[in-house]
Prior knowledge:
6 helices
Amino acid sequence: xxxxxxxxxxxxxxxxxxxxxxxxxxxxxxxxxxxxxxxxxxxxxxxxxxxxxxxxxxxxxxxxxxxxxxxxxxxxxxxxxxxxxxxxxxxxxxxxxxxxxxxxxxxxxxxxxxxxxxxxxxxxxxxxxxxxxxxxxxxxxxxxxxxxxxxxxxxxxxxxxxxxxxxxxxxxxxxxxxxxxxxxxxxxxxxxxxxxxxxxxxxxxxxxxxxxxxxxxxxxxxxxxxxxxxxxxxxxxxxxxxxxxxxxxxxxxxxxxxxxxxxxxxxxxxxxxx
Length: 274
């Protein structure tokens, strides 16, 4: 599933060609994705200018003229790719296409259809079922070791599972949690409420650093994900533990381990992470 860096990379790429442009053409080639599209979906978007593209957790917020917000979630296999000019060939998984007055087109492709789209009034964003209750953004200054310590207090769940809780911190996913825990030297199995403050003081900067490096690298191109220009990201070439089971730890040279937590693969070094 595209994680925060992949979504942020997509947002930035789309913003370059969409912000300030008017959507002149839009086609929804099916009535639903993961959920049904809103009534009159295309008609409500057509003719509006794109004022800004924002991100909240793993959601892209396309702010349209007149106050309407177009919410996009890429799901497991969704991607939004830009094309110069309307596509001559439309694939079976190209579900939503739209074009601007400047001649650029964006194609939402989603083979598994686990993504979703919605249209929301700005006043309803804080209470929207997908956005209400989300924790702080990990790249915001407000996300600090003190904030994380307060959220983890008395938690008995493993540290890895706690960081994947979107109410604790928004947007973190499996790949980057594994990488951040390694950099901070924290065992992913340790009960979250028992992680020492000095470790949390290392973890928050590690989370921010991993995410920023991944965004700069265009994300991690695993399976279906590509950037908005169709290019592959390359952060997966910099993984220190993720997907490196049995390979030598970059620090101690002991084999990287893999376990399953909450149905997800966890990669860590049993020597460096305590």
